[in-house]
Amino acid sequence: MADFKQRWHQLEQKAKDIGYRTTDRHLRLAVTGLSGAGKTAFITSLVEKLLTADTQPPYGGLPLFSVCMQQRFLGARRERQPDLNIASFGYENAMQTLRAELPKWPQSTTNISELRLAIDYQPKSGWLSSLTDKATLHLDIVDYPGEWLLDLPMLQQSFIEWSEQLLAPQSPITKTSGYSEFISKLTLLELDAEPADETLASVSDSYRQLLEELVHQRGFYLAQPGRLLLPGDLQGTPLLSFFPLPRQLLRNAEGTPIKNQLINNLEKRYSAYVKQVVKPFYQRYFEDFDRQLVLVDVLGALNRGRAQFEDMANALNALNQSFRFGKGGFWQRVFSPKIDRLLFAVSKVDQITREQQGNALSLLKQLLQPGWQNADNSGCLVEAMAVSAIKTTRYGMAKDRQLGEVSVVSGTALDNRNTVTLYPGEVPKTLPNDEFWQQQGFQFVDFAPPHIAADQAFEHIRLDHLLEFLLGDKLS
Ligand code: GDP
After folding, report:
1. By CB distance 3.0 to 4.6 Å, which of 32, 54, 304, 393 could disulfide with 219?
2. Which domain of life, per UniProt (predicted)?
């Protein structure tokens, strides 16, 4: 009997989920960005805003979110997540870390995760408002690493093309300290015998170490295959045991592709990765997203230096390819995405003064390249904003001996918890030129999250504007 009840409950839940997903009352919002872009802090803060908006005066702390401004927001609550095979987003843990006596940033997520909220609101218009004075939007928020989108070009590249692109002479990977050792290891490989699994695993581990150095020590962004550093549940599987080969092992002196057992095996591993990892990601998850937010840490990239900033620009461009749904494009032939609103947001703009936030936004638009807003998308609305999930600073004015009266930001430094007041420097409006990099003088500090009272919500910058773009029409 208990079994029957449980089964019945599961069936009911499933039927409800299908019902929600096929009506206007369900929305799947995907959040992505490269590691460190601020996804975890953003989702935690956004969920907190929605869960507490009915108790925060005035207008739920979200005056630009019309459902709050028009006082139609009735409340939000957590609901059981719909997909049992996706990890849950660790909201409670993240909140505890942020609200500890000594507030810290939550641990970044490195895999796909989700959570579901139910938002109760008073409908303003349409058939719903004539039938009921309370409606519910079921909102799924899905977090996934932007690095996974960098694999998209692999769907159209052969193993040889992929290798040649990754190990091209000017590529940053060729400048890593372990690169020549990696190449020597490759030249020792038996070319005409079936390579042992252990050998492939060991060489791919050396390749992974190059990527680790590139991304974690030197601050670059582009690392392929995307799952090697962020394997999710593929950790330790042979699907990740492959690596690119340099041109001298791929082509003979005339430029003709070489054929041998090693290349043959790596080609097989490469296509297994594309078929079993890259494609299913788009088919299983991507096709289901209704709205997409891409967070971009433009300020962090500027801080790291020219080569890293340019690498981030390339990564963003590669990532953006996943959202080009235009007619006759790649998407129309392979999948049918239904994302109808796409938002790019510069994150963490609380680190700079108010005047500089406009510059950060125009720089993001430049990075997205001309025509980004059309993005040859069929019917997809595209927007860009500058936001901060958790405002860690206060704005003020200070006197500088050379510059005179200047705008400053002030907050608690994350490392030593001292109060820091500074003019963080000027953010370029357009893509930085040589002169900029020669004179660059940024002081973007890692600020700690502020300590706030238990009944207060964290301050933010423009999350209400962002919510209006991403959810406003679904709550009207
Ligand atoms: P993820 O890897 O994309 O999930 O990025 P996280 O959310 O873990 O953020 C990475 C780091 O960026 C955090 O540890 C913070 O130091 C910083 N950060 C994130 N959001 C904000 C924000 O709104 N303001 C400030 N000042 N720093 C932030």
Report:
1. 304
2. Bacteria
- The length of the chain in residues reads 476
Q: Of 296, 297, 270, which is closest to residue 153 (Cα–Cα)?
A: 270
- Report the candidate in 316, 299, 307 with the shortest Cα–Cα distance to residue 426: 299
What does the pLDDT look like over 255-286, one tens digit per residue? 999 999 999 999 999 999 999 999 999 888 88
If you take atom 22 of ligand 1, which residue's CA is the nearest one? 348
CA–CA separation, 446 and 35 (whole Å): 16
**Which residue, judged by its Cα, is nearest atom 15 of ligand 1?**
105
- Rounded-to-integer distance, Cα 206 and Cα 179, Å: 9
Gap from CA of 302 to ligand 1 centroid (Å): 16
Distance 468 CA to ligand 1 centre (A): 22
Q: Two tokens at 115?
A: 């959570």
Measured in angstroms, how far is the CA atom of residue 256 from the centroid of ligand 1?
Answer: 47
Cβ atoms of residues 352 and 388 within 8 Å: no
Nearest CA to ligand 1 atom 12: 38
Residue with tokens 């239904």: 338
ipTM over 0.95: yes
Give me ligand 1 centre to Cα 154, in Å: 29
The protein residue with its alpha carbon nearest to ligand 1, atom 8, reads 108
Instruction: Dump pLDDT digits (tens) for 26-70.
Output: 999 999 999 999 999 999 999 999 999 998 888 989 999 999 999
Q: Which domains are assigned to the chain?
A: 24-144+285-390+459-475 (3.40.50.300), 152-282 (no CATH)
Distance CA 341, CA 291 (A): 5
**Residues 58, 59, 60, 63, CA torsion sign:** negative
Q: Which residues contact 130 (CB under 8 A, 6 or more apart)?
A: none
